[in-house]
Amino acid sequence: xxxxxxAIVGGGFAGIGMAIRLRQAGIxxxxxxERAGDVGGTWQANTYPGCQCDVPSHLYSFSFEPNPGWSxxxxxxxxxxxxxxxxxxxxxxxPQLRLRHEMTGAxxxxxxQRWNVKTSRGHFSAALLVDATGPLSHPARPSIPGxxxxxxxVFHSAExxxxxxxxxxxxxxxxxxxxxxxxxPQIASKVGKMHVFQRTAPWIIPHSDRATTRAERRIYRAxxxxxxxxxxxxxxxxxxxxxxxxxxxxxxxxxERAAGLHLRRQIPDRSLxxxxxxxxRLGCKRxxxxxxxxxxxxxxxxxxxxxxxxxxxxxxIVMADGSRREVDTIILGTGFHVTDPPTAWLxxxxxxxxxxQIAGPSPRAYLGTAMRGFPNLxxxxxxxxGLGHSSMVFMIESQLAYVMDAIRQxxxxxxxxxxxxxxxxxxxxxxxxxxxxxxxxxxxxxxWYLDATGHNTTxxxxxxxxxxxxxxxxxxxxYDCKPRTxxxxxxxxxxxxxxx
Length: 500
Hints:
By secondary structure, the chain is an alpha/beta fold. The protein is built from 14 helices and 22 strands. The protein is globular, with a radius of gyration of 24 Å.
């Protein structure tokens, strides 16, 4: 078993950011455990055609690692993945990276006050465990009778089969979420026939993506302050939309009208347009951006189907009305396990209970970072840290500051373990759910923001600068802190060390 001070699970934005901050603080005794063969997280795994971020490039990047060379205002997957690899290389993370190390279990040892972490390629003992596995890392497959016995090819958008040739095939796309609206336009002209199965019509607004100019890139390199100014402008522009989402949902009607005009301009067929009209308030589900999805649906070889899928029979998809569509390939654009990640069953805290058992159907955390019953475990991108309007990298950096200050205080005060108090968790989550009551996410639609109990345990319901303010310092008063013990040379017994 390899002993380290800190074990980070996950090599995406959160894990790489955590590792960089540790190195900047002079802490070298850590490892990054990544199940894939390279860093990048969701940007390494999602390689489907057209994969692109829906947050502007200058904001969807580390504030301490700006990239003046972004080729587009909204970056595409290969460029974001390359950016993360460069960050890891530039900050010398190679010695700490443990690639192809998938976590298979982690358990808190109360006697040693350490985490025992098992991976597919070895065991580690760590004083602190940082769970940096993102919410978009475990693809969700729908429960459709017969899906597992489909006689053609099936794959999820997050596990794109690039070796499979779609040319001339009859293709079914299940789902019309953020991934589907990107890859459908990319493959619509290549397939023979495409059937797009829509459960709920999403709100789609025009995309402002464009290529950046050489002049822009030169200016950003010569005068970094200009890029910081652009980033700040994007940030505050995005923050302004919080009013529409979380404070005054009625203001969303202005954007709804713009989205409706976008639909009318791109879909001349009235019958098709009616099936593409959302039946919920804008923002209740994730707002999507695209200039190409609607035109793809208007193609002669593309069919939009809103009838519920009943089963799959051989090579046919059978609808509730009895109609059938013979297909060769099924592509699942059905999202991820966000509120019920499989990794929650792998981590056992105090008393041997897993994160999933403690959380139940409704996960709760303190500041989205700490869970009762799991000492010295910090979760990045935890419950209620997601955003419907801005960059998750901003939230990640806020949590990184919180965890780094926790480490600093533990060192200065000779603290062996910290565990958030139950009353702190309860008070914080009661506050969150009270804030949710007046938001657009509480207007009645079903979305992946909601857990099995109907609570929104995914999104942060306020301005992000307020989250940053709350995580600027580690509030030890909200935790049970156990001091380190020292071994007496005369008696051989452990006695508490002095605590400042």
